[in-house]
Write a structure and sequence with these properties.
This protein has about 230 residues and is α/β, with parallel strands linked by helices. Helices cover about 35% and strands about 25% of the residues. The mean pLDDT is about 95.
Length: about 230
Amino acid sequence: MQRAKVAAILVAAGRGSRFGDGVRKQYQLLAGKPILYHSLACFCSCPDVDRVVTVVPEGERAEAMQHISGWPLARSPIVVEGGKERHHSVMKGLQAAPPECEWIMVHDGVRPFVTHELIQRVLEAARREGSAVAAVTPSDTIKTRVDQRVGDTLERSRLAAVQTPQAFRRSILQQAYAAAAAEDSFSTDDAALVERLGLPVALVQGDYRNIKITTAIDLAIAGAIMEGWKQ
């Protein structure tokens, strides 16, 4: 029996740059290639993913193509422009995903250390539960804050630091975004919108190397991870 098709949406529409050089974070170089390219290369070569949609900053499609077209990819992604906020970009990616794709994955374009194994684990869990996210147990102790004092100390074993990729049955993600739009209440985490519907979201063991690169310090850490990756 043929499996249901999967489309992956790589969200890389952020306009910010915290590196002081004017280059957007998704185009910063890691091992000589843009961060976004590393994420694209993984999804485009993954046998569990049928189509890849990349969402880039509004009005900058041509520039984005220049950044990612210099290196080979196993397949060509669909490149679309995003919107002002992250949820606008995810919705545009969802609209661009071919209609025959029954499952949707959403991934931060600036998480370059995603692997085929992690993609597969998240998809398998989503097929069982309807939705799934990658997550790790926080390594730091987490406390709540009340003004400038400590409120409570939270038990780490009960906490999950959520990553991407996240996977959803397409109809569930569409329903979640429709409900959020009706209330004009969105989130930076797609799974949170599904949770509001009262639907289950499976937690899948993520990878501590699967960091999100948003600052120069993150990029330095990523460089060290990449060195270990090569070995």
